[in-house]
Give the backbone structure.
Amino acid sequence: MKDMNLTNLSPKQFIEYLKKENIKRFYFVYDEDTKSVKASHKQLEPIAEFLQQDQRDFCKHEGIFVQLSSKYDTLLGAFVHRTNRGQAAGGVRYWSYDTIEDYLRDGLRLGMGMTHKNALAGLWWGGGKGVMAQNPDVYKLDPGIREFLYKEYGDLMTSLNGCYVTAEDVGTNVKDMANIFSNTRFTTCIPHEKGGSGNPSVPTARGVVAGMEAAMEFLGGTLGGKTIAVQGMGNVGSPLVKFLLEKNVGKIIAWDIYPDVVEKFKDQFPSDKIETHVAKRDDHSLMSVECDILSPNATGATLNKNTIPEIKAKVICGAANNQLEDPMKDDLLIHERGILYVPDFLTNRMGIVNCADESAGFVSNDPLIERHLSKDWEYSIHQMTLNVLNESKSIGKPTGAMAVEMAEKLSLENHPIFGHRGKMIIASLVKEGWEKK
Ligand code: NAD
């Protein structure tokens, strides 16, 4: 047992280990003074060591807090990356993982991604993410089980005293959010009926159009008459097409993997400017159609060493999260090909923008939300896209790396009223023995 590599275990094996050691909750926190990662339990120090040695994903996460579901052998986690700008905000993902390393890396990458997204959006929120590791022996769509798990997740949020405020993400729906909300006030994205902001997909599509318009302005043109290739006709892809038609684009080539989705789309948009296709899940050949803008609005990692060399678009701009399979190599590959890439975390911010401030009350056509879609506000998608593209051009750095550099700087600014309060919350959780409660 002593030589067991904990990060190589499957979540199921790891949970068996936790039970044997009588651990129900554990944490890893970064100690700025000693520049080291502290584990809540001696037995888990090898994981703290693993995090400390990691050069890519850990990035000094302020705290990782995990608890074991009391009934369904599911890991419920909160990854708090950076809270200078405010409490960590980001959605909770319900996903399956092969190993504990996969689970940790996903939470870490997503947590840091939210820090960058929120900072570039000028939000007074830090960055973090929730990750629930699915138990393969539990039917993930069972409404009773989901209700139990998401209520437990709400309990976890309450126990963390607000250093992380959760929201909706992949694998989580509005009903799940209502279940979380029933046990905590540290959540957003709750349904309209409960006083929340509801579905953010339409504002997200508007944000993508704002990014496209800025990129066209950078190139000295407009969207008028242009050809746009849209991958994915879902909640974002469909309204995106509507807004593009309003901008008088010349042609839209759109595709999805489900024939019924494509049929519904055709009924919704009976325009002779649109060409539709049903694609096979692994067939990305449509990404190389002749077009001005390629817009990925399906899954992540569709921009990679196989697809990028074939792309004919001048601009890539879409809502899909984590479009680059390898954030550094693929960013560089796109840059070297002379294609303008508008980073996803810049252009798809409207999901979090729509819900982040919902605890401050609801205003129809909220000016604090609308300004993100304006052309003049300094942190608007338009202005930020132009800043990233101009800086990237002047110093010759790929746009993804440029956006991360700008986001890193902004994310270290302290909240104007509350300062670096999330860090204080984490310190008090540790002092009060959160893991023993
Ligand atoms: P969705 O599930 O409603 O739509 C995605 C669509 O893509 C589906 O119709 C699916 O069939 C299709 N698809 C999957 N693989 C495909 C492939 N290989 N080729 C073509 N089509 C494919 O999701 P959504 O809410 O529209 O979100 C789209 C993307 O944007 C996701 O990556 C999501 O994480 C991201 N995003 C969404 C929001 C939001 O507000 N909905 C906010 C931020 C980011």
